[in-house]
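Hey, quick one: can you model this chain's 3D structure?
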Amino acid sequence: MDRYNRNRIYVSPEEQEKIRETRILLGGAGIGSIIAECALRFGFEDIAIVDGDKVELSNLNRQNYVKSDIGKPKAESLTKRLLKINPKANIRFYNTFIDNDNVSELLEGVDIAINALDFKSDIPFVFDELCSKKKIPVLHPYNFGWGAFLTIIKPGSYQLREVSASYEGFEIKMAEFVARYCTFWNMPNRWLDDVIETYRMEPGELPPPQLSVASWIVAGLCANAMFDIITGREVKYFPKFYFSSLRCDPA
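Sure thing. Here's the predicted structure for all 251 residues.
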């Protein structure tokens, strides 16, 4: 039986072949680790993974690693896992951080990019801007704990710098952008407002809290969005976005 036989009806044989041939660059193997597996199981078999981080114990609550991976390079560990799922897939890894020196070369020949990079510098912005020049759509996944957020940057259109020109604290700024948007359209998510407020009151510079729940939800959103892009279906582009959560405010 064909590996993707159970995709039938949802995905035509011609579409399945398009999926298989699509070349994906995954920048960042944190939340990207879950996205990569969901995409692979869906049929995306040409994936390049770039990340210079090593697996830490604190990653195991939401990322696609096991205890024996601790201390090992994320990109390499993830590639080994994916190849156990599909040994014939074309999965490559680069145990390095994306920077100004390598970003252009890494994007050569790419059809879709996933920007799951940490905002520790302006490299995520540079990544997007170069993708725009190369006419590569970029997926931006975010883990908001109980909610999954995805926005897509269309080549030649609005960039994430519209939210903030500075990379500092960008993840929380994006959460505030979502919260304000939902409130404006009379779809408030007070639980998200509470998380943002509580996080801002924490002492020091702690990384934002994240749950496994959102990692898996946003992985599905990404696989679905990539399928829609390559098959010519309509998708929402930034500043529009996808936000999914079971949490709701009291009536």
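One thing worth noting: Helices lie at 13-21, 31-42, 74-85, 103-106, 123-133, 170-184, 190-201, 212-230.
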